[in-house]
Amino acid sequence: MTILRAHAEQQYAEELQELQLHDTKPRPANWLLSPWAVATYILGGTLNNGFKIEPKYIGNGRLIEIAIATLTTDRALLLMGIPGTGKTWVSEHLAAAISGDSKLLVQGTAGTAEEAIRYGWNYASLIAKGPTTEALVSSPVMNAMKDGKVARVEELTRIPADVQDALITILSEKLLPIPELNDEVQAVEGFNVIATANDRDKGVNDLSSALKRRFNTVVLPLPHDAEQEVFIVHERVKKLGAALELPAEKPILEEIRRVVTIFRELRTGLSQDGKTKLKSPTSTLSTAEAISVMNSGIALAAHFGDGTVQATDIAASLTGAVIKDPNNDKTVWKEYLETVVKNRENWQDLYQACSAFN
After folding, report:
1. For residue 281, what are the contacts with CB-CB under 8 A and spacing of at least 6?
2. Which of 24, 211, 304, 306 is most buried when burial is the number of CB atoms within 10 A of its CB?
């Protein structure tokens, strides 16, 4: 049976092993690698023996160094940014490089209960014997505290505010009280928390001031230029296409460049040449969404075309990425097609494909 998506520590096991073998710098307690080696794993590089480490994050390397330095202290790390800037991706790889385990995860939703962060109970045992150690069900955070590892809390601002605050004692006192057993769990050296959050989605719950003070915040921005974003999309599309075994040719770089250009223009509200002001849709049009558009195009070309990605293959997913609110975004998209795409040289195929679908 083939796993659809391996954990970071499984997918990049060879890189982590090589880094361990050649890492001679001091390592914090219970860290798999030194801070320098963790940064090399995330940002990429070449080891002394010529072994190449693939970059996991392409952007401002100083932000990654700040994030890693935060995790060497007693402060937790909060990765902020609009959807699609790679917060979850960076969080997973940081946990894999530091603890060798990215699976200690709490996925934040509007329905996340306090038990997901603290602990729960085996109710059959609880009814039969009352509160006992055997009846206790550890959360990923509790397990991370016991083992001195990094716990991840995804979409922290999606979690109800009263549940969020369950983290305050854990982060400040480094302990988790269990009053039912008159006991507590004290964090072992190496324990920390990486949380991710954004303030653009609907249903966001603001963090309390008390909880904010427990985190050092690093904001991950969108790529600062088009070529960097094109490179990121191209590399991720190649990786995902290989993992999903899509039988298409390599994605056409020009199609990626057109999708990235459209996203950047609509995000900034200005055409590439700076001559045309544009309305921006409600959608975030992130790098992650550009990757999704191209993957959908590859799948269409592979299974229902000749294997070569064309404008007709990306039109549907491109339109869907832009139009999130039919009442407003449809007008913005149509106006963009008519004022920019229609008049751009060699973009007639894309204009016709998107107009026909729209």
Report:
1. 266, 322, 323, 324, 325, 328, 329, 332, 333
2. 211
pLDDT digits (tens, 9 = 90+) for 264-318: 999 999 998 888 899 999 888 989 999 999 989 988 888 888 878 889 999 999 9
- Say if residue 115 is in the same domain as residue 244: no
Distance CA 92, CA 9 (A): 9
205 and 258 in a common domain: no
**Tokens in use for 343?**
């008049």
> CA torsion sign, 327 to 206 to 90 to 119?
negative
- Assess contact for 354 and 337: CB atoms under 8 A: yes
Tokens of 193: 């928390």
Asked if the structure places residue 3 within a domain, the reply is: no
Average pLDDT, the chain: 91
In angstroms, the CA 329 to CA 323 distance is 5
Confidence at 245, pLDDT banded by 50, 70, 90: low
